[in-house]
Amino acid sequence: MKKYLAIALALVIALSLVACSAPAGQPAAPAAPADPAQPAQPADPAAPAADASAIKIGVILVHDENSGYDYAHIEGVKAAQAALGIPDSQVIFKYNIPEDETCFDTAIDLAQQGCTIVFSDSYGHQSYMMQAAVEEPDVTFVACTGDTAAFEPVDNVANVFPYTFESRYVSGVVAGLKLKELLDAGTATDPYVGYVGAYPYAEVVSGYTAFFLGIQSIVPEAHMDVQYTNSWYDPTAEAEAANALIARGCVIIGQHADSTGAPSAVQAQLDAGKVAYSVGYNIDMQSAAPTAALTSAQNNWAVLYTATLAKALNGEAIPKDYAAGYSDDAVMISALGASVAAGTAEKVAEVEAAIKAGTLNVFDTSTYTVGGETVTTFLALDTDGDWVGDTGEAISDGIFHESTLRSAPYFGLRIDGITELN
Amino acid sequence: MTKQKKEPLVRISKRTSGLPTWKAWGIRVAALAASLVVCALVIYAIVKMNPLKVYGAMFEGAFGTNKRIWVTIRDTMMLLCIAIGLAPAFKMRFWNIGAEGQILVGGIASAACMIYLSKTVTTLPLMLLMLALSIVAGAIWGFIPGLFKAKWNTNETLFTLMMNYIAIQMCAYFVALWENPFGSNTVGVINPQTRIGWFPKLLGQDYMLNVIIVLTLTVGMFIYLRYSKQGYEIAVVGESENTARYAAINVRKVIMRTMAISGAVCGIAGFLAVSGASHTISVSTAGGRGFTAIIVAWLAKFNTFVMILISALLIFLDKGSIEIASRYNLSNHVSNMLTGIILFFILGSEFFINYQVKFHHGSKREARA
User: Fold this and answer.
1) Residues B253 and B333 in one domain
2) Which residues of chain A have a CB within 8 Å of the CB of B193?
3) Residues of chain A below pLDDT 70
4) Which of B304, B324, B344 is the C-terminal boundary of a domain?
5) pLDDT in tens, A111-124
6) pLDDT at residue B157 above 80?
């Protein structure tokens, strides 16, 4: 009998280790289009006038530096530290904090360790951050990629979000040029694009719509299918979704999910003789897909952290919502891959300049239709908790102003030409 | 040439008369001490840091502030509750590895009450209803594999494991149903402003009620297993079903009843997790603790008071590792290594408690003979 006990114990340990190492949560991945008409506040680093020791920073991360998404946040905070002269002793990183009461405990714990401002990097942390803000009124809690700060009953909370929709639009232009090249060469006959999305909510919808509009600016007849994985980070599901889309005939695969699953799958298909190219997110995907990766839409969190911390240092109020895009260098695309079409770099520079200048609006309502009609009104904000917008007109002057009424994206329209498969 | 049967250098034999308690505990403490020494060597060899400082940081991570102490206590109570639930099943040699699922269904029941009844039912009846429903949900989830085992002799290990996945899928369904905001796939904190369905503060402490409930269960389960007739039946069925039958014990009934009880206590753990700690529900509400608790139950030999110590040790390691990861920038892999080393030694100590190891010194003499 004892022998069985020993075997059972060994099994138990194995199981519990597996259970422990299971993914703890999903990092929220940002995505949002920009409103060039209203340039965001510049992230003025330069002047670390105030005493850097007056603030202490806590950072709650859903994973550690091994996740591209969290790595971007860690680097962002470090860059902000360098810009503002904040020593390492004034910053506490908390890694692998799941999106449950652990986040609340950690936020309170950071406050008790003397932190004056606490950041969290994942969407699911938000409600715990807001809960902590009620208990620690003297500390500012910033939920990156969150969306409820404006409606919280307390003032010491904030949300920040980059205009990821701008970089997605630009990455869409890169994809569109490649698509045009394939069509012109006869390598592809159908301008069919696929997109691996995480969850069917506004952040993702806003992102894939911007990507699609970028493609359509080059290839107007393009059409796109979206396959959801229902996870922010699931390499297997993302790879399967990419394979399914390629099997349907897609020749470009975009993504709003945090792993290299889709680019790796696309590279394997390309190597097997299919026509398939990948547009990634968060990190440069060329190591995962050397010839299939065209570019990736990226966020430069350093700009957002620097701007927010500069305000904290100077004793200014932290706005409840803060978003920034190309004009502040808060978003960008990664280095162009080996397979991009000729002339891509020039076109990208042109589009980026137009976005910065405010002459190009990603969600210009003349460029898309919903149910065959041009959209003229959209209420972006929900105040009664039913998740249907009841206030905040987002459309004016023929432009859908994304991420201006609040930092988190709210473009939830399903435009013509895009099909959600699940 | 005469064939000489060589005696092995090391001989391992089962201890026939169990070790006296003090000796057994001596071995365990020695194992713990040895594991700390090995960990210290690893820390020094790999990260070149003073191990005592690292241990000090771990201690501060678990007990450094009042808040941390209470979080450590809360998580200890949660793990303890699950281990208490598993104890009767494992004592019966029924391999219930389905605690994860039983916790989740209990948690789903509690969360449903918090979401749907927050406007109609007042706090006290709501709490009692949540408790009752989580018990029922957990009991059903435990009873089903018990029933199949009793009636058709199905393999309970696989059955309870599969029930976990059903519970996880059910939970995913409810998370999608209750998600807040729409499409985010998280439920978020339930009733954040009104705090309806949350454990109330007792004696000024948020988690005092968790402690009271779990310690009541600790004492109750100890008495049940040690002194009640049903507890005796469980022990007999666990030792030998044939003996149990011979003693006119209805084995099937005992299996089903015990599994319902086991599931029910795990259901309470789900209630604690949702109402007493996270105030939300997700597929990670159980978070692997249903498996970790199996170690707790086994190491404690189903003695619920010993489980308190072991739960506290595991939670301490967990909290400590988070602290050293943050303070010294050691990745979680280092703290996982330390936890692994400590568990290895503790589990290994059971071997020396159950078996005698004799080194043979007479081999040379025999070779000459």
Assistant:
1) no
2) 153
3) 1-50, 383-388
4) B324
5) 988 899 999 998 88
6) yes
Partners of residue A17 in chain B, C-beta under 8 Å: 340
pLDDT mean over B327-348: 80
Domain identity same for B167 and B287? yes
Residues B271, B190 share a domain: yes
ipTM of model: 0.72
Write the DSSP string, A182-240: HHHHTS-SS-EEEEEES-SSHHHHHHHHHHHHHHHTT-TT-EEEEEE-SSSS-HHHHHH
Give yes or no for A422 touching B (CB within 8 A): no
In a shared domain, residues B350 and B211: no
CB A248 within 8 A of CB A269: no
Q: Quick one: closest CA in B to A231, which residue? A: B185
* pLDDT reported for residue A56: 92
Q: Is the pTM for the entire model greater than 0.90?
A: no
Contact B332 A64 (CB under 8 A): yes
Q: Cβ–Cβ of B182/A387 closer than 8 Å?
A: yes
Contact list in A for residue B288 (CB cut-off 8 A) is: 16, 18-20, 22
**Residue B365 distance to chain A (closest CA, Å):** 33
CB within 8 Å: B326 and A13: no
| Inter-chain residue contact B192 with A98, CB threshold 8 Å | no
Distance from CA of A67 to the nearest CA of B (A): 13
* Torsion angle, alpha carbons of B211, B213, B215, B218, to 10: -140
Q: Return the top range by mean pLDDT from A37-41, B167-171, B241-245.
A: B167-171
Task: Give the domain range for residue B32.
Answer: 1-49+328-369
Average pLDDT rounded to a whole number, residues B61-75: 88
Residues of chain A found within 8 Å of residue B158, distances taken between Cβ atoms: none
- For A378-418, how does the pLDDT look when each residue is reduced to its tens digit (9 = 90+)? 887 776 666 667 777 888 888 888 888 888 888 888 999 99
What is residue A68's predicted lDDT score, i.e. its pLDDT? 75
- Calculate the average pLDDT of chain B: 85
* Residues B351 and B212 grouped into a single domain: no
Show residues of chain B in contact with A411, CB under 8 Å. none
A292, amino acid identity: A
Instruction: Output the CA–CA distances (angstroms, integers) from residue B265 to A19, A325, B141, B142, in the order listed.
Output: 21, 52, 11, 10
Cross-chain residue pair B188–A98, CB shorter than 8 Å: no
Pairing of strands A157-162, A192-197: unpaired
From A2, A12, A387, residue closest to B295, measured CB to CB:
A12
Q: Is residue B97 one of the residues assigned to a domain?
A: yes
CB contact under 8 A, B67 and A26: no
Query: Which tens digits make up the pLDDT trace of A370-386?
Result: 888 888 888 877 766 66
% of chain B exceeding 90 in pLDDT: 32
